[in-house]
Amino acid sequence: MSGSPAPNKLDLDAAARLEKEADTELRFRDLTGFTARLVSVMLVSLSVFHYYTAGFGILTEHWHKAIHLAAVLSLIFLLFPGGFLSVGPKIGGVPVLDWIFAVLITAATIYLPLIFDDLTFRIGNPSQTDVVMGTIMVVLVLEATRRSMGPILPIIVCVFIGYALWGNHLSGVLAHPGSDWSGFVNHVYLTGEGIFGIPAKVVATFVFHFVLFGVIATRMGLGQFFIDLASVIAGRYPGGPAKVAVLASAMFGSISGSSIANTVTTGSLTIPAMKKVGYKPHFAGAVEAAASAGGQITPPIMGAAAFVMIEFLEIPLTTLLIAAAVPAAMHFWGVFVQVHFEAKRLGLRGMEPHEIPKLWPTIRDGWPTVIPLVALVWVIVDGYTPYLAAFVGITLCVIVGFLNPRNRLTLRDLWDALDMGARYALAVGAAAAAVGMVVGVVTLTGAGFRVGFIVTQAAASTAQWFAPIFDILPASFGSLAGLTLFLTLLFVALICIVMGAGIPTTALYIVLAAIAAPAVIQLGVPPLAAHLFILYYGILADLTPPVCVAAYAAAGIAGSNPFRTGLTAFRLGSAKATVPFVFAYAPVMLIMVDDFTLTSFLFVTFTCALGVLVLGLGLTGYAFTHMGVGSQIGLVVAALMTISPSGPLTAVGVAIAAPILGWNFVRSRRERTALA
């Protein structure tokens, strides 16, 4: 894995540099000397700790979470600059104040398991020391989150803290009895409802292990195999590099839960290739961003939010992976359709034969790298814990990596992977602790039901205005109840997109799962569908200007305008914006529902896929030949009706689309005849 990479080979070091530029969660201090070595040892030790406990037994929960959080939060103060707080004398390149913060956060975190046996008597009646330690914990968790993720999430957490302390001064449905600082600290620090709650537990016991698996799997060649295989499958067809980007991102996304990591890793190869065959820079970047944003919804790894979801819903991971499969396929199908017809519209070629790897050498050299992923999925399906599955996957990654003569891991590669795997987990660890406080405030004040009531009431009031207009629609859509559900979903989707502009996906999901999911579930949507709806729209923010992080990363590689790249990526990812409404109305698409029938599943899936195809034609402006604006608008309207899980609406959609497509087919024949 040394030397200069070939033009069609991944340069993982270059990809890491690009990711660091695009992702604020990876902008670490450039440490040198003893401090750099010390921090690297701490990072690798953290990875080894999680690997060991995954295979040989998780510690007692309170100790496991405490050790994880103490290491993660202290490392953040050593690795992330503090801005206006990074002043004064330094030791080893790190300000003395940051060393003090690292020691204080470690003490405050470890304090809790040390007094764990006495917690029964302290909860509800904290001592002065408890309040002081809890205050240190709250303040430094917010500061660690600010450093690793920016100011928006800490500001939102502070708003919730303010609501907990002074909500008694509000009127109406949002009013609650209020809490003093001691009571607040008691709830979010001493109980399992706050900083040490479900989010921290999930990151410490599930997320870290799968992040580490993804990093090591990429290092030992699985990412390269996915790209080569995608090139073999799709490279020769019109617009080949873009299709390779979609397939490779789908496969790479199955081991990477990060849209930015997916973008810069596969995009470093696919974006230049797309530009070479004739795609405009902003479109090339948008294709990679839109495809890569599917990583967090693609089984088996998905993202950190998926593991939080299975804890919230108390369901097996297998249930979620099966449920997420068809919607994820719809997203990639939507991107693929638009990529294909854009290539047809522009008359683009595929990749040259010498640019496409040969099938047999690709399989011969790459098949061993798939073994860890297959084993990981097998262990999950067999009913074992996710962290044991990750342990098996990581172990096989190391074994295969050291034994594979064509892509051999070195000890240096393994050390770097363990180091980087821990770095990837730092920001999400801080976010988990911070949003744990939001969850704590929700349980302390009942804010989830209060916000849910406000959303559903606003939707119901708005629905009364529009109900007479939509009486002609089927009852599930046009009735007052149907419109209320639609508007509630729409309001929640808009909240997800707006909040997602400044909050990472996992943190956003946790917040909205606490305050918005109850509103959707209250209207009859199954909990699994409601939570997946929130997750999908939270991820959509990665593509939505002005803060479209995946598109920004892709634009940096493509040399294009980030805003234009983001708008195009949003258009390419339109299926991700429509499919959640389908499984909210027709949860049968998720398979894992009580009233599942094969007939209804096939109908909903087929009509959704057909609607996504028609939507792609309309948005691209090409169906057999170039279309006018009127035909495009007609196809978009037809697509939205066809996608709906209602038989009558689907029939209307097909009736609208058929003559438009028929007319374009006739026009294309006439144009070819005229040219002949």
Please provide a written account of the structure.
There is one protein chain. With 676 residues, the protein is mostly helical. It has three domains: 14-196, no CATH class; 200-431, no CATH class; 597-676, no CATH class. Helix content is 73%, strand content 1%. It has 30 helices and four strands. The chain has helices spanning 12-22, 33-56, 61-79, 96-114, 119-122, 128-149, 152-166, 181-190, 198-219, 222-234, 240-253, 259-277, 281-292, 304-313, 317-346, 359-381, 386-403, 411-445, 447-466, 475-478, 480-500, 505-515, 517-522, 527-540, 549-558, 562-572, 574-585, 598-620, 629-643, 647-675, and strands at residues 90-91, 94-95, 622-623, 625-626. The chain has a two-stranded antiparallel ribbon with strand order 1-2. The protein has a two-stranded antiparallel sheet with strand order 3-4. Strand 3 and strand 4 form a beta hairpin. The longest helix is centred in the middle third of the chain and has 35 residues, at 411-445. The radius of gyration is 26 Å and the shape is globular. The N and C termini lie far apart (53 Å). Mean pLDDT is 86; it is low at 1-7. Keywords: Cell inner membrane, Cell membrane, Membrane, Transmembrane, Transmembrane helix, Transport. This is TRAP transporter permease. The chain crosses the membrane at residues 34-54, 66-87, 99-116, 152-175, 195-217, 320-341, 387-403, 424-445, 480-501, 507-525, 532-555, 575-593, 600-624, 636-663. It is a multi-pass membrane protein. It holds the Pfam family DctM.
